[in-house]
Design brief:
Strand order of the largest sheet: 2-1-5-4-3
Order of helices and strands: HHHEEHHEEEHHHEHEEHEEHHEE
Number of strands: 12
Structural class: alpha+beta
Helix content: 40-55%
Number of helices: 12
Largest sheet: 5 strands, antiparallel
Amino acid sequence: MHFLQGISFRLLLFNVLLVFLPAAGFLYLDVYERELLEAQERSMVQQGRHLAAALSERGELDRPLAESLLRRLDRRTEARLRIIGGDAILLADSASLGPRRAPEQSASRYGSDSVPPGARENLAYRIGAWLYKLPRRMSNAPEPSSESESFYPRGRPLDVPEVRAALAGRYGAATRRSGGGQRSLTLYSAIPVRSQGRVVGTVVVSQSTFRILTALYEVRLGIFKVFLASVGAAIVLTLIVSTTIARPLRRLRDEASALLDRRGRLRGRFRGSRRGDEIGDLARALEELTRRLETHLAFIESFASDVSHEFKNPLASIRTATELLAEVEDPADRQRFLGMVQRDVARMEGLLSGVREITEIDAQLETEKTRPVALDALLREVVEGRCLRADNLVQAPIKINLEGPSEPIVVRASPERLTQVFENLLDNAASFSPPGGTVEVRLAREDGAGIVTVEDRGPGIPEAHLDRIFDRFFRYRPGEPGYRNGHTGLGLAIVKAIVDGYGGSITARNRPEGGARFEVRLRA
């Protein structure tokens, strides 16, 4: 049953169906045969009318006159002609006016088969003879035979319908099965012969449909041969096509089955393909899918490990402080340990908030609704808001300069997410800027993309940390005592997650004059 549902079997059915459609021409051979019979009958009637017209000029019909006229035709017609007098007696028959060629006999003394009679009983011979004669048996081609004389006996009146109709002045026709065991038919057409306004006899034209049937059998046999060849070609093409389709699909199925272990973990990936067709595209897409899935699973595992590590220290500190709280009696010490617990709890809350935010970005950014956003207007709002709110990370206000082109630059994104990106970048730049320093924000268009640059005048980023600046929980602020307690290290990681989610990019490098430069590139 599995084979019947496979692609190979469906391809075979489809190809064979295409073969059967032209083979349906067998059905239209009946129409072709009917048209040939009608054409043959029209030809017979035309010959009979010509002969009847020739006889009508002779007056009364007699045997010498009828035989003389048929002899003058010299057997040049394919049809058999009979002249019947007014008394329904046969006067002349074209078949009796000349010698008939007998069928040729085989020169072999064993008959039609050139083998001794004893060999006919041999199984191998019988099988060979059966295969040799199979096409002829299938075509059912008739053997030629003489026409039956039972309907037109000599020497007595012909009491047949077509002759009675013709002697009555009407056209007579009949169709009878040919004699001699043939499968063909014989058509009879009777045309009255008139002289001086009365019927003096009739001309009967008869012709077998043997030639028509022979032609039809040859056509059927030819169609059948083409059909067999087409079925063979369909099977071969099906095998070729199924090999190039079903086998690669089975390979992909086997790779998919071996892709996961019992615990559902990836233990490999799809192998790509160099094929240029749709199956090659599918293999490469699956390879890319497993690569991205592997990267995402590695991200989840690494993220879980980082979160566990970040929570370990405050939890250990909380446990130590609570244990000491139970042992000390001095109110000042109890207050100090209680402050430690509160700071670590606040740190854990900040970590939880950052973790929740970055996981929401990773899970929901693709499904969030986006709309066209003008970067120049958005940056103005972010800068104005940053200048208005208090900055607890620096001791003096930070000046922010915004430069941009005169024409608007529009990108498609969520305004809230982009606001979060630039607020985090400004907070980071302000936290590294010296008191009273300046942060430069520039907006430009390049190659159809909007580019936002944020520069500060701080100490810059150590070369060893440039590759880690966007890692989760990475913190490096050597000039700030206890900076690990005040920063979660998730701000720039959140920025990168949002920008990457919108198909953009963010890079960090140092300015030659000092300070750090962050460049955000978003598709316009």
